[in-house]
Each structure stands twice: as C-alpha cells, then as structure tokens.
TrEMBL record:
Assigned keywords, A-Z: 4Fe-4S, Iron, Iron-sulfur, Metal-binding
GO MF, any single term: 4 iron, 4 sulfur cluster binding
Protein name per the record: PF08331 domain protein
Source domain of life: Bacteria
GO biological process: tRNA queuosine(34) biosynthetic process
Stored InterPro entries: QueG
Key word Iron present: yes
Species name: Leptospira interrogans str. 2006001854
Length: 91
C-alpha cells in the first residue's frame, strides 16, 4: 500500500520537475462563502475580458458536476515577473 507521504513526495518531484513553483493539495470542497463570492464577482463583471469565465458556472461551484465525486484537488502555480507590472508599481 502506498502511503500519503510517498504520494506527496512523488507529486512534489513531478511538479518541481515540470517547472511549477507552488503546489497545494486539499479536500475537494468549495465553502459556501466562496461560492457566494464567486457568484458576486461574476455578477459585478469583475472577470474583465475573460468572457469564458461565466460559462459553466455549475462546474466552478460544485466539483460533483464534473460527472464524478473528486476527493482531493491538486493546485499548481508559477511565480513570474511581469516587467510592465513592476514598472506600474514603481510609479
């Protein structure tokens, strides 16, 4: 039987080898407060030019709508520097 620590260690190696800087593993659950905030964010058109974002909101608000019942979520992130953003922040 593979232990959770072994799986996480393998994930970490794979993730870092793929160029990601950040990762997290958590329970596949979206708190009600977050669901409400997502809906409000979309209602207030804070998604800007991301016209694709409001589509399929049922999938964004409840993972079970994916067609299966996931138990965990793996989130990946990359740290990047944007010279234009850095320039804007400096002004």
């Amino acid at each position: 039987m593979i232990e959770s620590k072994e799986i996480i260690s393998e994930f970490k190696t794979l993730i870092e080898g793929s160029g990601f800087d950040l990762y997290g593993i958590c329970e596949a659950n979206i708190p009600e407060e977050d669901r409400e905030n997502i809906l409000l964010w979309v209602k207030e058109h804070k998604h800007g030019n991301m016209e694709w974002y409001p589509k399929n909101m049922d999938l964004r608000l409840d993972f079970k709508n994916l067609g299966f019942d996931p138990q965990s979520v793996i989130v990946l992130g990359a740290i990047y520097n944007d010279p234009e953003y850095e320039k804007f922040e400096a002004e």
